[in-house]
Amino acid sequence: MEVSRILIGQGLLLVLAGLLWPVLEKLGFGRMPGDILIQRDGLSLYMPLATSILVSQILSLVLWAINRWS
């Protein structure tokens, strides 16, 4: 029962992120200064390093707060 709730919660978060992505892109999220973009003939490579670090820090803070208050 516990695993199913976790998976449903993660799925809902992914759907929410997908719905909010156009708004987040307009705010500059996903194209931060530390992100790497390489474009050449027939190749486009995007490595969102700074975005990944920011998301990791935000999620760590949220999970810490949930764990502390529960």
From TrEMBL:
Q: Which UniProt keywords apply?
A: Membrane, Transmembrane, Transmembrane helix
Q: Does the keyword Transmembrane helix apply?
A: yes
Query: Which protein are we looking at?
Result: DUF2905 domain-containing protein
Record's InterPro entries?
Answer: DUF2905 (IPR021320)
Q: Decide whether keyword Hydrolase is in the record.
A: no
Indicate the secretion signal residues: none
- Give the Pfam families listed for this entry: DUF2905 (PF11146)
Q: Which residues cross the membrane?
A: 6-24, 45-66
Source organism, top-level taxon: Bacteria
